[in-house]
Amino acid sequence: MNDTPEFIRENVELAAFTTLAIGGNARYFVEASDDQKIIDALAFAHRHSIATFVLGGGSNVLIADNGFDGLVIHIATRGIEFLAEESGTVRLTVKAGEDWDAFVRYTVAENLAGLECMSGIPGSVGGTPVQNVGAYGQEVAESIVSVRCLDRRSREIKLLSADDCGFSYRTSIFNSTERDRFIVLDVTYKLVHDGKPKLAYKDLQEEFGTSKPGLQLVRDAVIKIRRSKSMVIDPNDPNSRSAGSFFKNPVVDTQFVSTLVEQFGNVPSFPVDDDRSKIPAAWLIDKAGFEKGFRLGNAGISDNHTLAIVNRGHATAADVIQLKGKIQDGVQATFGIRLQPEPVFVGF
Ligand code: NAP
Q1: Which atom, in ligand 1's list, is nearest to the CA of 268?
Q2: pTM: predicted TM-score of the whole model, two decimal places
């Protein structure tokens, strides 16, 4: 098109931008290194009625083999603004394109508590409010003050408070009621200077026993645990070529858990509220007969974590979809629960 801005490229392969290393070409692609490029790219797409997809760290997407027939906006903005406050708290405003784990490492080095349990998670800062990223009993909703975003409808910049974001377990307005409406530009977190690390989960408590570790030791322990499950991206670990957890942990009526216990004996579950409990998806998958290392064509289950689908080399999106369906059908036939995938599907 003759009004295509010079920073928009055509026919760009997307596989390299994803942790699964799968996906065809984007018809149009922009590396958005500042907010203005995001706004201009969006205006171009709007003028020509072209679909858009916003790509962050690529750690939670499955892109179709035929790619995406639209404009991919790769958020590549950088910068951390540091604002010390009274009463031992600090506010940091972080651009959406910053690497999440590099940011967490920085906060821990600065002795700021609030994000340490979410160490080693791949992806970008802008992705964290979308699914209210959490791990080991800590989630970003606990520390997010506000999210500045671009409204794709009105193309205005809006500042949403944490309340406006409607956070709950792995959910926000960004991936539910207002899905595809906002592009996250930056996120402001409030952290506690010299605060204590959160030690809520058994894995972490076992690691430390009665000792009182600082933030850095907790970060190190989380990374060690995640690495042992190949949940830290590492080019030398073929089991980490995945999109992290491929299925959500299902939340079911606690009553239903009791019927499963009668049928299957010991079923692990954790209360979510008065009536509902979550069951680890990894346990259901394993008990339905899909063990670690299970393979289907070039896709497979990680050797180190039942919840991760791995590209075993030259896997296509079709291979992944086939394996996903087989696992969903198997778990449903055994337990009557339909597992829901966690990644975002693009171009299907
Ligand atoms: P895991 O530690 O093997 O735990 C499996 C399941 O048990 C998860 O559903 C976890 O809940 C639950 N669980 C364990 N201990 C619990 C406790 N004390 N209280 C309540 N629930 C408990 O899980 P994993 O797959 O290896 O993942 C490790 C952590 O990373 C988990 O916290 C997981 O949620 C997190 N993670 C988050 C994302 C994301 O934000 N999108 C993606 C991948 C993994 P929770 O899921 O509520 O923690």
Answers
A1: 7
A2: 0.94
